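[agent] plan:
  1. take the single chain provided in the ticket
  2. run structure prediction with default settings
  3. attach structure tokens to the ticket
  4. add a short note for the reviewer (M.T.)
[agent] executing step 1
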Amino acid sequence: MKKKWIFALFFSILIIVTLFCFTASALTDEEYDQLIDEQLTEFGADEVEQLPDEQTRALLEEMGLGDINLSDYLDLQPESMAEIILALSKNNYPAPLAACFAVCAVLLIGQVMNGLRPEQKPGFEKVYQYFAVVAAASAILIPLVNRINESFDKIEEASVFMTGFVPVFAAAVSASGQPVSATVSAAALLAISEITVWAVKNAILPACGIFAAFGIIGGITDSADLEKLSSFFKGLIVWLMGAAVTILAGMMSLKSYLASAADSVTIRTLKMLVSGAVPIVGGGLSDAVSSVVSCFSVIKNVFGFFGVAAVLLCVLPEIISVVLWKLAVGLCSALASSTGQNGVGKLLKTIGDMLSIVIASLVLTGLVFIIGITIMMKTYGGI
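[agent] step 2 finished; step 3 output follows
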């Protein structure tokens, strides 16, 4: 009786494995995509698609990435990204260009007034320097302050997206055979998100205000040369941010490799037990385990691709906008220096240093989030 039960169990397992292999091989491309889409929906793809802010969702839709779908991602063309960059540049250049024209008007008035000034009134130049610095600061800083606040709001929105995205992504990574890696990396990414928002609110944003004050004071008075001081602090802040990103990325990489080794031992042990416990067809069942885990790896990578695209398109509009402001301010600074209006030149040079810090904050924030997602996609690959 016992032998009959053993033979029955053996043939049942053999039939199940045969049907599994036959079904997998008989799937067409459309059926395979449908199977992946169903699993993505089970993992919460519909909810993840709503996590980015409204502007980011619109850009994702424009690129054809609004829906978390494997076939759409495989059909993605590089030209779509170039079109979005060009469109964002067209939408964001009017404000910097208008400010640039306003500053150029101030510089032109200064040249005219210098040519008409009375020779017996040497204090006239000082009076005009005050006027020119205040006028240029008003033309640049009033619209620029709003842009900087919006840029830092985007960093916070990217952090909010990561807070909702990482748990779902970690579940997909865990299902692909890497539970330890998923737990470790998810905790690290969530911590980085919180640290980023704290640093922006408590360090970077106040530093921008200090730079604006340096520029106005240095432009008005000749006794305090704050241009070199602002350049020093700009280099220091950018260096500290770069070092922090390097350390965080390095720690994530080291943790991921250690956790991946633990996960690899677990999966290999499971495959060995399955292969040895079931006679004859144990090897087939072991391969079936690998096939199932590989299917979940596809799901994990699709989620990861969406996360990278969402983070990139969240910060990209602000990077392009601030870069355009940086170019406009740099052009005005060069014109002020070439016309001998050093007060306005000092102001614009300091504002340019401030914009460099904003650009570095946006780039490094997006970079550390993308590196974290990519590490989870790449390191925890196959079995």
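[agent] step 4 note for reviewer: Residues 44-93+143-378 form one domain.
[agent] ticket updated
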